[in-house]
Amino acid sequence: MEKEKYYVCIPAGEISQVRFGNNDDFTIYATTEEVAMLRDKLNNMDNAGWGTYIRAHIPIMLYHNDKANDAYDDNLTEVFEMIYKLGDEKSRFHIEEMGILGDNHM
After folding, report:
1. Which residues, in sequence order, are CB contacts of 15 under 8 Å at separation 6+?
2. Contact partners, residue 72, CB within 8 Å, separation at least 6
3. Cα-Cα-Cα-Cα dihedral sign, residues 22, 26, 31, 35
């Protein structure tokens, strides 16, 4: 299957073939199946984010024992791993500079 160019904006959870505004944080080349997988990971991250929002309003729940927070972090890491794998040189360099993946991306 042929790969096409997409722009990814993680904070907005956006994947688009049209460059518009600030939606081009990362550029990837992906098949429709790979885009669907990335979309699932972004959706999982969003769902976990709501769980962390709820936990933040319950003062007796500790941050470091929060499964929603762990799920959010895990999905965020998976999103960056996919973007690193599918991204252009600028996207991979940016992720390397962030150090978010450690040595796992090599």
Report:
1. 6, 7, 8, 35, 38, 39, 42
2. 45, 48, 49, 51, 52
3. negative
pTM above 0.85, yes or no: no
Q: Which residues pair with 87 in a beta bridge?
A: 28
DSSP state of 2: -
pLDDT recorded at residue 83: 96
Q: Which amino acid is at 92?
A: R
Burial category of 83 from C-beta neighbours within 10 Å (exposed 0-12, middle 13-18, buried 19 and up): buried
Element housing 51 (H / E): helix 32-56
Q: Is the pLDDT of residue 33 over 90?
A: yes
Q: What three-state secondary structure class fits 29?
A: strand
The answer to whether the beta carbons of residues 89 and 59 sit under 8 Å apart is no
Mean pLDDT score of the chain: 85
C-alpha to C-alpha distance for 51 and 9, rounded to whole angstroms:
21
